[in-house]
Each structure stands twice: as structure tokens, then as C-alpha cells.
Amino acid sequence: MASSKIPLRYAMKTYRKEQFWMPPAFLAFFCILSAFFLEDGRANSMATAFLGYMLPLISGILASSPILSDPALELHFAAPISAWQLLVARYGVLLAVMLATGFVFQGCMALMGVDLAYLGNFWQRQLVWLVPSLTMLGLGCFTALALRQATGGSVFSGGLWIFQLTLKGYLLSKTLARNLVLFMGATFPMGGTMLVKNQISLTLIGVLLVFLSAFLLKRQERYI
């Protein structure tokens, strides 16, 4: 029995399969692309695209289903388990998968000889993908619970990602809007104060969305 009072074996069985195959599948795809463009020097662009753009999108899409796809959700509500425990139990596995995907991809790039130093030192490099990924994870969770529909949460997260990608140049030109851009770290990895403000803003938004998700989850009558 896990500390969250949900058996790990049960949690693994009730997870939707795409939670496990989608991140590694895209990892393999971008590793192949990076290898293909290795000789002409475009492997760095592929690495940035995966870390700074694709991982946040995957996080937002997959974050919509861990709770609402649970066939025994009503039983969890009847058990002595808090909203926070349920969030940790259902999203802990997804977070572990995303972390493993990010680190394994960087390891693959190192083996291929792709230098990621342009993204900063080791810790700065992790913030490039981890901050927007966690923000999108919080967004996917919150919107799914708010809409009471996993598909709606995925569509909203993907729509926001497309919106920001399409208007990235315009958003980055605005002082306030650039603090909300998911791709700031990938666009300006050595952006100094501007990047720090962006990452702090995204982190605060992600934390707020998690708290709001816990608040919604406490209103169990919405999901029964």
C-alpha cells in the first residue's frame, strides 16, 4: 500500500496506456530526427523542439486523464483519502514518466554527440523543459476537472499550446504577455532576467492550478 493509500499495482493497472507509450514514442521519433540531421548541424534544433516544445504539449494532454479515467473513482471518494493524496497518487506516475523521458532524451543526445550547452548549464537546461511541462500538467489537470471531461482538458491544453506557438512572436514582444509564454526557455535559453521572470510566473501559475485542482476535487458531487 502506497503512502497515498492507493495500491501501486492498482494505480498502474488503471492508468491509460498512452501515459506510458506516448512519451517514449516521441522520444524515439525525435532521436531519429536528431540523428538524421546530425551531419548538417540541425540536431540541436530537434533537441530544442523536443525538450522545449513537445514535452510540455505531451504533459498537458496526458494530464487530463489520470483521475477522470479511473473506473473506481467513486470508491476513492468513499475511502478516507484526501484530495491531495489522490492527486499525488494519480499524477506521481505521470510526473515520473515525464522526468525519465526528459533525462533519457538528454542522455541520448550526449551519446550522439549533440552539445546542449547552448541551453545553459545542467540546471538551467532542466528548467527549459521542466517549468513549462509542469505548468501544462497543472493546466491539463485543472481544465479536465473543471470541465469534468478528460477530452475537454486535452483539447484545451493542446489549443493553448497551438495558440501560443502561432502567436509566439507577438506574445514575446509584449512585456506582460512574455511572462506567460511557454516556450521562452527554448527561444531565449540564456534570456537572463527576462527568462527568470517568465519561469517564476509559469511556476506560480502551475502551483495555483494544482491548488485549484485540489479544490475542485474536494467537490466530489461534481464527478459522481
What does this structure look like?
The chain has helices at 8-14, 18-36, 43-62, 73-78, 83-112, 122-147, 150-166, 168-172, 184-187, 193-218. It is an all-alpha fold and 224 residues long. The chain has one domain (8-223). Helix 2 (18-36) runs antiparallel to helix 3 (43-62), helix 2 runs parallel beside helix 5 (83-112) and helix 3 (43-62) runs parallel beside helix 6 (122-147). The longest helix has 30 residues, at 83-112. The two termini are 25 Å apart.
Q: How many structural domains does the protein architecture include?
A: 1
Pattern of helices and strands? HHHHHHHHHH
Major sheet: size, sense and barrel closure?
A: none
| Cα shape | globular
**On the 0-100 scale, what is the average pLDDT?**
87
Q: By helix and strand content, what is the structural category?
A: mainly alpha
- So how many helices? 10
Strand content: under 5%
User: Span between N and C termini?
Assistant: 25 Å
Low-pLDDT residue spans: none
Fraction of residues in helix = over 70%
Number of strands: 0
**Cα-atom radius of gyration:** 18 Å
Lay out the secondary structure:
Blueprint: H1 8-14, H2 18-36, H3 43-62, H4 73-78, H5 83-112, H6 122-147, H7 150-166, H8 168-172, H9 184-187, H10 193-218
Helix pairs in contact: 2-3, 2-5, 3-5, 3-6, 3-7, 5-6, 6-7, 6-10
Summary keywords:
224 residues; mainly alpha
Brief characterization of the structure:
Helix content is 71%, strand content 0%. With 224 residues, it is mainly alpha-helical.
